[in-house]
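User: For my dataset I need records formatted as: sequence, then structure tokens, nothing else. Please produce one.
Assistant:
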Amino acid sequence: MIQCNFQHAASLRDISSLRKASFFLRKLRFVRRFIMLFAAFGASFIAPISAQAGIVTTLPPLAGLVRMLDADADVRCLLAPGADAHEFQLAPRQVQALKQADLLIRSSYDDGHWSGLSLPGRTFDLWPQTAHAWLSPQAVRQQLPRLAKALQQLAPQRQQDIANNLAQALKQCDAIDNALNNALAAYRESGVIMQHNAWAKVLASYAVPIWSVLESQHHGANIRPRRLEAALAQLTKHPNAVLWGNRQHANRGLVWLQQHSAKNSQTATKLLLLEPLGDCSMNWTQLMQANLDRLNKLRGISQ
């Protein structure tokens, strides 16, 4: 028997139902992985790369950084819109086409598990030791001069334009940093409960308390009932905490917490869904501004 030592614990029926749902979700994840593998090896619409690929990035935000510095760069993403970076693998045709690229830009801490990702002598690794670093204005600001130098070497005819764009990009980083600091002010009091840790280091850098992280590993990792119980206990202790999730990913644990907290509170727990990746057509400033808009909308601040 599951024993709960906090006031508003989930019922035994809820936990039993959750276990059944967890078993069902594991089956769904197996099916999803099969479909993704089939698509990677057989579908032609996923992240096409031309024979003359120019710049290839593993993740959309990295392409967004390139566009900040060189709007005329020929840049493409390997990760297709809506795909899960934690489960993605290159198709054989992508591996072959990648060999024609002038430059591969990656973040090996996040894409290091992708097999076949190799371009010796033409690889620029932005963040080999930091997860989801593109979400941090400070981390981006630190790497932009290095990236600009690499792009200038690739396109010397646009060297001055890239230098001018770099100066503007650094100012944009500072502006996003200040805006993010202001937008997160309210969250320093409430704290958050996260589905996945994509934003964890960013929130820590702005002194936002993280009361619980449901997924201990990658996206889709099985959330054990005891972890949900502990998170619900934290939500009872911090009733104003915001449930912090990611768009395009399942946030079932957060939805479960929201539903069960509603049974014991007159005020609905707020659920926030942000976008850590965006798509390959967005520059970095657009991605971060979209997330700032969602942060402020939840606080009731119109843009």
